[in-house]
């Protein structure tokens, strides 16, 4: 009998869809994938060069388990410069991607049976990561009319005496919505009052459109900062998903526990990737603006096309690179004489019949949704949306 905890974890549905689409492609099938959770750009040249130099200069040995002093200092500078937050290297833990940072954070704060409030729709990994740390994920229902952003009445319904933490994700995956400063103040005050940790996942922080101001909940006061574990990384903003560098900033006590856990689980994150992340954070930032411009154009196009399609509705994303679409009206209709039962079925049939990969809403806790990523070329986006539109028009 294998471990109950391991058996209870479901594999990431986004990675499943992505690998299915890649497998079909490798067999020569003309698949358009809207499944990608990563920028389609190459890592900028100066970052790649820093990694090559790191190898040649001998940065190939173990580093301190929670990351090099130099990278931690660069992270502190970034948090000061962009978020108005003052941290010291003792507050920082560098890990193998933001996902690993989240895993360390839950491991550091949860005791068996502690509950973690996770607003719906959520990024697929939060509930599973909570479970892996013996916690209980509590899905907090949000409302479309509030742009799927969690409110105090929503939290009140989900709160119990065992509530230990709230997960916030802004800009959010899959909705692309951003919490305003005022909204964060209200939520932050509630967490302070109830002594709840805030795990704020800010991995899409640099992917914000229309000049919308970005606020980190940790910047709203010293007491809130102490209660917050801020998660970020270089994966999405610098097109560095494969390098696996994420980080957490927290109170020194939480950071110490996270670092101790990591020191036994994985030791340091890759030494060369740490040097690359240092170049990303300290180097020129123009590359971000170029990628953002391309994403902004695709976002506009995809959102407008979806608005014009039968049975679909979506909120305009404010950040990240996803459109989360409500497909409730398409469900229950028939395609090729067979009923489209739910969002899993919708995604499977779309892939089978039109060779378009999307991520069904089930994994995000939202069975009437689907997520489309626009981290793909305009040509692919146009072609994929044409196929989606055809599929919808064939529904009866
Ligand atoms: C909301 C969110 N947090 C964290 C991550 C993981 O980031 P990383 O690749 O740095 O582990 C992702 C990746 O899809 C994400 O969407």
Which ions, cofactors or small ligands are bound in this entry?
pyridoxal-5'-phosphate
Q: Helix count?
A: 14
Distance between termini? 47 Å
Widest β-sheet, arrangement of strands = 2-8-7-6-5-3-4
Q: Tell me the CATH superfamily of the largest domain.
A: Type I PLP-dependent aspartate aminotransferase-like (Major domain)
Extract low-pLDDT stretches: none
Main sheet makeup: 7 strands, mixed
CATH class of the largest domain: Alpha Beta
In sequence order, what are the helices and strands, one letter per element? HHEHHEHEHEHEHEHEEHHHEEEEHEEEH
Radius of gyration: 21 Å
Number of strands: 15
Helix content: 40-55%
Can you give a write-up of this model?
It is a single chain. With about 400 residues, this protein is α/β, with parallel strands linked by helices. About 40% of the residues lie in helices and about 15% in strands. It is built from 14 helices and 15 strands. α8 (about 180-195) links the parallel β5 and β6. α5 (about 100-110) packs across α6 (about 125-130), α5 (about 100-110) packs across α10 (about 250-265) and α12 (about 285-305) runs parallel beside α14. It is globular, with a radius of gyration of 21 Å. The N and C termini lie far apart (about 45 Å). The model has no long low-confidence stretch (mean pLDDT about 95). The structure holds pyridoxal-5'-phosphate.
